[in-house]
Amino acid sequence: MLGTNICRVTASAQPSARTARTRERLLAAALDLFSRNGYDGTTVAQVAAAAGVTEMTFYRHFGSKEALLLEDPYDPLMVAAVGRQPVALPPIVRVVRGVRTAWEQVPIEDAAPVRERVRIAGGSPALRASMHANTRRSQEAIARQLVDDGADAVAAAVASSAVMAALMTALLLWAQGEDADLGAAITGALDVLDVGAGPKG
Amino acid sequence: MLGTNICRVTASAQPSARTARTRERLLAAALDLFSRNGYDGTTVAQVAAAAGVTEMTFYRHFGSKEALLLEDPYDPLMVAAVGRQPVALPPIVRVVRGVRTAWEQVPIEDAAPVRERVRIAGGSPALRASMHANTRRSQEAIARQLVDDGADAVAAAVASSAVMAALMTALLLWAQGEDADLGAAITGALDVLDVGAGPKG
DNA sequence: CGACAAATGTTAGTTCCTAACATTCAGGAT
DNA sequence: ATCCTGAATGTTAGGAACTAACATTTGTCG
Q1: Cα distance from N-terminal residue to C-terminal residue, chain A
Q2: Shortest CA distance from B195: residue in chain A
């Protein structure tokens, strides 16, 4: 969520140069206005105007006001990392360790742009709620992986939702602070859920 | 969330009989229309009309369309139950066991009306997202309790958010099924997060 | 240049929600 | 019963996030 996508599989067919430019302008204008006037204090019309474009065009590039901030393609890295954990472990432990290993390699230089978005999102209750909706695909994919490996359906759903919530909480806390190392922040936070073994078990 | 409030401290000053009646009519009309046409397929104007009332009146009784379904006063029972768990335990375990004990005594006869609401909420992504926003107060209260007992702030926030997410997942799954025993469903689900000891440790 | 398609604009409408002001209704004092 | 007052409701107007249908521009390629 929130441009925090670890994976680099993004674009399918490359869009025209023109499309990419207006998209960039809209994004820049929105981020600027959001951080200056707040998300709720900024209207789509304002963003569109600042980008020299119509409201309608905004909606054609980003399906919604939220999407501009939260939009992130489904990230298969976490699912894969979970799948790589020993099947013998309890589901919750598998998910914690999978997600943790997937995130602890995030390069520091990727952190700065992410922090701004997460900060903005954290400032609006509506946006914070939407972050959950946004992680749903990953959550379901992880649960599916667990079930495929023989886990109970309820256990799989509960474990993946709990870990994704923890991940979000960690991200929000990290964005509020000044700590540069995103990977470390998340690794540390997820240790809370992995009671069985000490950190990095 | 969703009328699933365990605690019975509800009303402050009693509202006039008239107020209570229109409120009831609105609620009944809404639940009926929601379950027949879906939440997104029902407009506030329709609900108001079905209750023989204006849209404005709807908003005076329920602050928003979502509020009608999600509205639930802050529930101190979970916080108290968490506080009662041994301080020596890791935060995540304390929260899991606290929330679990708070819920496993819910009488079966309370389950039916809850199930309808959770079912409706589960059917709409927007509503599902809002459920998270709705649990935030409880989540923060639990985290505060943990911090008061000496836990790290990040650990407290992560643990409480993870458990609340698990609780919601369990509720949504329970509402979809036919199992009558809400308490048992939640108890079982939360065991997933309590790896340290077997069920009911 | 001319055609074709993608990108953008225009207009109109729906829905959720709010604000300001007017009206009706219920219940107590006279 | 009548009046009076405050609570509950109605009315109107409008903002903001969207959506749909249709018109227009813009870039590109033969």
Answers
A1: 27
A2: A196
